[in-house]
Amino acid sequence: AGLPNAFGQYDEGPEDTAIQVADFAREGLVNVTGGCCGTTPDVNGGAKFA
């Protein structure tokens, strides 16, 4: 997930995204998450385990 690189690929893996989303949630910055281009169930589901 994240932004695509110059080749249209995504360099950020589900683990990276999960850590960032979990940090945002702990800070009280989010209460709902979702995804768009490049996200998979692995990305969205990983945040609950981070």
Automatic annotation (TrEMBL):
SUPFAM superfamilies reported for this sequence: Homocysteine S-methyltransferase
Any GO BP: tetrahydrofolate metabolic process
Sections of the chain in a coiled coil: none
A cellular component annotation (GO) from this entry: cytosol
A GO MF term: metal ion binding
Start and end residues of each Hcy-binding domain: 1-42
Swiss-Prot/TrEMBL keywords: Cobalt, Metal-binding, Methyltransferase, S-adenosyl-L-methionine, Transferase
Family (UniProt): Belongs to the vitamin-B12 dependent methionine synthase family.
Protein name as annotated: Hcy-binding domain-containing protein
Source organism of this protein record: Paracoccus siganidrum
